[in-house]
Amino acid sequence: MKVQVHVSLKPGVLDPQGRAIHHALEGLGFDGVTDVRVGREIALEVADDTSDEALDEMCYKLLANTVIENYRVEKLS
Amino acid sequence: MKVQVHVSLKPGVLDPQGRAIHHALEGLGFDGVTDVRVGREIALEVADDTSDEALDEMCYKLLANTVIENYRVEKLS
């Protein structure tokens, strides 16, 4: 089963990487960009009988830092 | 307009970060994980009149390294 975990910074948490990209886009002449936030997208290939609880446990134990990050699990197949 | 750019390593390109996560998941007792790949998800807030060409240009000029990475642009609103 293919699973995608989307990890993004919580609103309000500073994102220096996003800010750097924002500045670089402006430097390249792209106007009209007002915000940039960078997250991670982790593609997992897991056994078909993996439970939702196990996937959730993977996220909060390892894949995301729940103090500053939100995560969303998406089953693809 | 909200735009999400999904950047992932091309197939065949080594992913040491994904491999480290894979090993860590096994160490935590999660069996049945057969593959882990890590990508980036860049959330942009851009002017509504931003053209598809401009978005594509942002990707190949800055957001993705097209030698080793694929990207996909998704307009959310």
Characterization of the model:
- Two copies of one chain form a homodimer.
- The first copy, chain A, has a single domain (2-75), classed as Phosphoribosylformylglycinamidine synthase subunit PurS (Mth169, Chain: A), CATH 3.30.1280.10.
- The first copy, chain A, is built from two helices and three strands.
- A three-stranded antiparallel beta sheet of chain A has the order 2-1-3.
- Chain A starts with a strand and ends with a strand.
- Chain A has helices spanning 16-27, 52-63, and strands at 2-9, 33-46, 69-75.
- By secondary structure, the first copy, chain A, is an alpha+beta fold.
- Chain A binds chain B through residues 6, 8, 18, 21, 24-25, 28, 30-47, 49-50, 54, 57-58, 61-63, and chain B through 6, 8, 18, 21, 24-25, 28, 30-47, 49-50, 54, 57-58, 61-63.
- Strand 2 (33-46) of chain A pairs antiparallel with strand 2 of chain B, so a sheet runs across the interface.
- Chains A, B: Pfam families: PurS (PF02700).
- Chains A, B: It is found in: Cytoplasm.
